[in-house]
Amino acid sequence: MRSMFRLTPAWLVTGSMVLAGCGDKTPRPAIARETDSAIAVVSVEPESTTGSSVTPAPIVPASFAEADTAFRDKRYDEAVAGFAAYTTRRPSNPWGFYMLGLSAWKAGDLTSAEGAFKQALTLDSTHVKSYLNLSRVLIESGQPDSAMGYLNIVLRIDETLGEAYRLIGRVHDAKGELDEAVTAYHEALLLDSTDVWSMNNLGLVLIHQDAFDDALRPLARAVELSPEVGTFQNNLGIALERTGHFFAAAAAYRAAIAADSSFTKAQVNLDRVSVLKEDPNIGSIDLKVLSQGFNAQIARWATQEN
């Protein structure tokens, strides 16, 4: 088993941090939270299911390929129906239950998703994708300890899988164990220095610790690598705003909205920061320098670990 990296870089030593300072001069920004293959936001309300009193029966795709097409087209109810029918016809194929689990998760049915992933693992105890996505479902359903158990199994199968360490970071974050979350994200980035979701998640943990200057580095790097992801732009905007760089924050929020026009949290953030007055003495900020500095920091972590 690969030992967890325990080094705390110098830029992270910022003194005692609190999760929610009560003396803030401006309201807390709306933070977009990482869910790996799906974007969520803090305090998201479930989509309304009200409307017609009669719910039409979902179209049932006739084959695995058709159900997979429905999934890729984000017609998740159809995908659920299709893969449920497929698993009835092919009950010994773990991939059918895996896709049923993914479809149910995307459709918002965490209980059915959990059951489907567990059935896939009953059929194939080495099915790493099912372990990983089951752990995501368990984290989202408030079962981080159970998720950790499955992630430990993944590491016994493959201790070099950075995605597992990223999810371990989410487990620790969910439990309020922020230092341990930082350690897990460091490990994930040591295994894959281009893991933008680990960068995003690390930035969020630092924001939760009120270490806003430190959060700029991984978030700037995530944006440099994946500027099209609105979540990264939004969270970078938060770090910029909290360090007083209101003009740069507004640009990041605009980029988030350009990436996703329905990103209402980013719009809320933009509306707020647009009326704030930036200190003329604060100086400019070079996000590219911050990004490259974080990339160099990862290289130093690797040297120090060895």
CATH-level-4 superfamily name of one domain: Tetratricopeptide repeat domain
Q: From the 3D coordinates, which CATH architecture of one domain would you assign?
A: Alpha Horseshoe
Strand content: under 5%
Q: What do the pLDDT scores average to?
A: 84
Give me the side-by-side strand order of the main sheet: 1-2
Briefly, what CATH class of one domain?
Answer: Mainly Alpha
- Using only C-alpha atoms, the radius of gyration works out to 21 Å
Q: What name does CATH use for the topology of one domain? A: Serine Threonine Protein Phosphatase 5, Tetratricopeptide repeat
> What order do the helices and strands follow?
EEHHHHHHHHHHHHHH
Helix tally?
14
Distance between the termini: 16 Å
User: What low-confidence regions span 5 or more consecutive residues with pLDDT below 50?
Assistant: 3-28, 33-55
Largest sheet: 2 strands, antiparallel
The helical percent reads 55-70%
Helix/strand-derived class? Answer: mainly alpha
Count of individual beta strands: 2
Question: What does this 3D model show about the protein?
Answer:
A two-stranded antiparallel sheet has the order 1-2. A hairpin with a 2-residue loop joins strand 1 and strand 2. The N terminus is likely disordered. The chain is globular and about 70 Å long. It has a domain of 107 residues: Alpha Horseshoe (Serine Threonine Protein Phosphatase 5, Tetratricopeptide repeat). The chain is mostly helical. It contains 14 helices and two strands; from the N terminus they run E-E-H-H-H-H-H-H-H-H-H-H-H-H-H-H.
